[in-house]
Amino acid sequence: MSNNLLKGKRGIIFGALNEQSIAWKVAEKAHEQGATFVLTNAPIAMRMGEINDLAEKTGSKVIPADATSVEDLETLISGAMEELGGPLDFILHSIGMSVNVRKGRHYTDENYDFTMKGLDVSALSFHKVMQTAMKLDAMNEWGSILALSYIAAQRVFPDYNDMADNKAYLESIARSFGYHYGEKKKVRVNTISQSPTMTTAGSGVKGFNEFISFSEKMSPLGNADGDACADYCVAMFSDLTKYVTMQNLYHDGGFSNTGVTQEVIEKFS
Amino acid sequence: MSNNLLKGKRGIIFGALNEQSIAWKVAEKAHEQGATFVLTNAPIAMRMGEINDLAEKTGSKVIPADATSVEDLETLISGAMEELGGPLDFILHSIGMSVNVRKGRHYTDENYDFTMKGLDVSALSFHKVMQTAMKLDAMNEWGSILALSYIAAQRVFPDYNDMADNKAYLESIARSFGYHYGEKKKVRVNTISQSPTMTTAGSGVKGFNEFISFSEKMSPLGNADGDACADYCVAMFSDLTKYVTMQNLYHDGGFSNTGVTQEVIEKFS
Amino acid sequence: MSNNLLKGKRGIIFGALNEQSIAWKVAEKAHEQGATFVLTNAPIAMRMGEINDLAEKTGSKVIPADATSVEDLETLISGAMEELGGPLDFILHSIGMSVNVRKGRHYTDENYDFTMKGLDVSALSFHKVMQTAMKLDAMNEWGSILALSYIAAQRVFPDYNDMADNKAYLESIARSFGYHYGEKKKVRVNTISQSPTMTTAGSGVKGFNEFISFSEKMSPLGNADGDACADYCVAMFSDLTKYVTMQNLYHDGGFSNTGVTQEVIEKFS
Amino acid sequence: MSNNLLKGKRGIIFGALNEQSIAWKVAEKAHEQGATFVLTNAPIAMRMGEINDLAEKTGSKVIPADATSVEDLETLISGAMEELGGPLDFILHSIGMSVNVRKGRHYTDENYDFTMKGLDVSALSFHKVMQTAMKLDAMNEWGSILALSYIAAQRVFPDYNDMADNKAYLESIARSFGYHYGEKKKVRVNTISQSPTMTTAGSGVKGFNEFISFSEKMSPLGNADGDACADYCVAMFSDLTKYVTMQNLYHDGGFSNTGVTQEVIEKFS
User: Fold this and answer.
1) Of B195, B241, B258, the CB nearest to A232
2) What is the pLDDT of residues B93-118, one digit of tens each?
3) What's the pLDDT at B40?
4) In chain B, how long is the greatest CA-to-CA distance?
């Protein structure tokens, strides 16, 4: 259902790979709420994905970009402004990948080239997006920039490996850049710390099904799913949340502040 | 501008004293967004306030209640359901008062009867509201309950006195009751940690003007005002934020994660 | 083994009931490290306890005091200074009790007289101790005041009931009073957030054994026991930690920053 | 004064450049408390420093190592065990450097090669040290590993630049590796978040004097100096703190939990 919450707003959405992707759902909901936007993904990810269906469905152009390449980002952001007819109001960064995880390296046996590559893709790319946008003066005042994060930035989930450190770095960027973008242009920057979600990215993590189940039982409202996350992103892109900035926002059914639940404790009796 | 975000939702709003009150602005915006609600305040506060103007403007009934009295709360909540034609979808708790502050007692010279009275009004009342609502089964599934808080719950602002401890207790209630209300009825409970706001309540605090100014300069987006806070409350009452619960949400222009700003540091050179 | 870490230091230790008590162990270790101190407990608790054995063993005087009574606290603190021959260097507050828990009242069915009584005993008493000490100018510069807390102040453990809110209030007092005591007299104030410990107090909580077991498996180093906690208190009373103040210090084998462990996740496969 | 707190303990201390360095003071105090250790620094830093004086004074060997080189770290750690006659009980990581800061690049105009280099030196080196130590089984059970951090990991101090993100990554490593080292070998890993300190490293930051002054006035006990920090490190290396792990410990005179002080607010009247 549309409330025209994003009517007239322009944006860029990174990371829509397929229907499971949170970014995909955000695109659908943002479209429904009246936004126009450009979709983007890494060229290699696009070959695997069905992003063109989404583009068609939402009347969007796709501009491929490697989010670790400043040059690609310049092309993307300039292209988006041209395509959409003006500066942007929102950006969604939904990108993450650990080479150590993919290659099966334990956290205590990292390959540091892999570590650096994963950090660049998962976290530093967020800085690159914002630095490029700022240099191109691509954001309207009171614009809203979001990245998706996970509570592993605060607490250890052993299989999450070096993505935990990447998310900590990502959230720090949100604060640091949020300060400067706020001072300079009234742009707000936040991360959403989302429940574990059964996406293509998530499903690559070892023991993910057990983990989803644990998380479900540790959340008074249950795990938040991708649709609910997309709703929350819409709220954060809308004008209802203009003074929320530099925050990491838990969207997790209460997981983050639950120490234990009755259902979990019963497994220990 | 209405987006019909709260269309069909019913609620109770505590604490609208006059046009400066955040609760007043929430009432106006909730009405605009299609909600119906009952207004309430302590009988003594109502004599000072202009709540009837607000009631007329928003087509609402006023039911006076002392929020520290379980009996009054039962009457209020039952009356609200009857008046509105069914169970509730949202509650706003915007109540706070420190007798020690009013009587000019320093934090290191508390009168403990005053302390207990202030705690009862400012914090325990929130528990009483929810316990009463739960016993009356007065909330619909996925309802949203909010209380207004302040960052003094985390960090010391000396003139805030024992209200800091009250807010810490209030936020703990949000987590504790949020757990149980989530498990039982999918109701979410959160606090919004708002910028200092020039309301009747705020203006009673010693050195408040200087403090507002400090806070303004320490916030990359500036202090969030009451209107913006009301917008945020609307977002938190809407279906866009269904999986956010047991959280303390900073609505403060970035104050909470800013260590220092250029403007502030210059005062030290 | 003694390192004379507390040589020449004087203090008051609240809450030593029997050999299981953390306060009991702190008394033993503080004595070993060269401190002199007065022991105290509520008159009613003392009848049940074996505090006189501890007094004899550590060469300490016992001065009974109801920690909710400012009058009793004046007598205690004045008496301690007289007995020990000068102002104090440390205080341990290890007191907590929820009437709602004792009477079997669920968190959503609180008796608010019980709530207030539990808050007074478990949290407000900490303020009373410090306010009384400050008025009597009973602390030496760089003195150290500690209270024992639990992570339920941050996250929900449903059976912990209203003690969670009490601990949140207690920790807020540590910050608020720590500010003023630091400014005025260089006294530091902290709380230690301890692993669940099988004391007389702990054993009254429903499902405590299961909870201890869950906590053990969620802590990379295992639960911290009472002896280790006493060691930590000694460190916090010593001159090695003079600039740590207004903090809540987790002493929990890593529980607080562990999202899940391999052992726990296996219960969900 | 010695309390023999570290008697018989062996360690490695990174980062003693000159008498201002915190690592220098830790070496002095650890020596005084009965520890033996190896000193290390980057070859280039050693040319500028006076580390040999410290080595002589504390009876220590110096083994140069580039902390970003796993090969160098292997040589260092193996060499230290051989020199000291067995596995280690403690490690201090006191290393940090931002190329962007040195080159005068603003946070919104980062050179990403500089960013990566600074991250490697300031944060990833901590992982490399621990991964190497674990592979060589170089730590005794209940050993203690510390890195020095700063509150910019949580809040924005604009001139701190990308060191904020580095410190966030560093603290995440402490949690992540602390989990694994705890599970495997009962080794604890923590960071100390220290007041700004007038060291050679600190003095390179723009506006540092003003910042020291602001921080002093925002800390109820004043800024913690390097000597006090060294005392705290001794406490954290001792057996008094065996169950503290995966924590970021504020050693800052109360700065972290102070929202404002009377002295600061007066600048805004």
Assistant:
1) B241
2) 999 999 999 999 999 999 999 999 99
3) 97
4) 62
* B213 contacts D155? CB cut-off 8 A: no
The per-residue pLDDT for A268 is: 85
| CB count in 10 Å sphere of residue A165 | 32
Task: Give D26-48 as a DSSP string.
Answer: HHHHHHHTT-EEEEE--HHHHHH
The interface predicted TM-score (ipTM) is: 0.97
Containing H/E element for A2? none
Give the pLDDT of residue A186: 98
CA of A217: which chain C residue's CA is closest?
C268
Q: Which helix (H) or strand (E) holds A36?
A: strand A36-40
- Rg from Cα positions in chain B: 18
Is residue B1 over pLDDT 80? Answer: no
Q: Evaluate whether D31 touches D59 at the Cβ level (below 8 Å).
A: yes
pLDDT in tens, A214-257: 999 999 999 999 999 999 999 999 999 999 999 999 999 999 99
pLDDT higher than 70, residue D110: yes
Residue C199 backbone dihedrals phi, psi, to 5 degrees: -105, 180
Q: Rounded to a whole number, what is the largest CA-CA distance in chain A? A: 62
Burial of D69 (0-12, 13-18, 19+ CB in 10 A): middle
Closest residue by Cα to residue D207 from B260, B215, A173: B260
Neighbours of chain A (3+ CB pairs under 8 A): B, C, D
- What is the CB neighbour count within 10 angstroms for residue D190? 23
Assess C78–A contact: CB distance below 8 Å, yes or no: no
- CA gap C243, C187 in Å, rounded: 10
For residue C41, give Cα distances in angstroms to C65, C73, C77: 6, 11, 13
Burial class (CB in 10 A: 0-12, 13-18, 19+), B142: middle
In this predicted structure, what is the pLDDT of residue D201? 63
Other beta carbons less than 10 A from residue C57's beta carbon: 12
In B10-85 the beta strands, taken as DSSP E runs, fall at 10-14, 36-40, 61-62
Angle, nearest 10°, between helix axes D70-84 and D125-135?
Answer: 50
Count of CB atoms within 10 A of residue D135's CB?
Answer: 14
How far apart are the C-alpha atoms of A6 and A33, rounded to whole Å? 5
Alpha-carbon distance of D99 to D118, in angstroms, equals 6
Element (H or E) spanning C265, and its range? helix C262-265
Q: How far apart, in whole angstroms, are the C-alpha atoms of residue C83 and residue C77?
A: 10
Read off the amino acid at residue B194: Q
Output the average pLDDT for chain C. 95
- CB neighbours (10 Å) of residue B28? 17
Domain ranges for chain A: 10-268
Measured between CB atoms, which of B179, B188, B234 is closest to A240?
Answer: B234
Which of the following CATH numbers is that of domain C10-268: 3.40.50.720, 3.90.1300.10, 3.40.50.300, 3.40.190.170? 3.40.50.720
Q: Smallest Cα–Cα separation from B118: which of B154, B169, B156?
A: B169
Count CB neighbours of D113 within 10 A: 10
Q: Tell me: pLDDT of C219 over 70.
A: yes
pLDDT given for residue A205 in this prediction? 64
| B51-83 per-position pLDDT tens digit | 999 999 999 999 999 999 999 999 999 999 999
Q: Using an 8 Å CB-CB cutoff, list chain A residues near C269.
A: 207, 209-210
Q: Quick one: CA dihedral A63, A67, A68, A70, positive or negative?
A: positive
| Pairwise CA distance, residues D60 & D78, whole Å | 15
Provide the whole-model pTM. 0.97
Closest partner residue to B179 (CB to CB) among A186, A220, A244 is A220
Residues 209-228 of C with CB under 8 A from A: 209-211, 213-214, 217
**Tally of residues, chain A:** 269
Best of B172, B177, B183 to mutate (most C CBs within 10 Å, chain C): B172
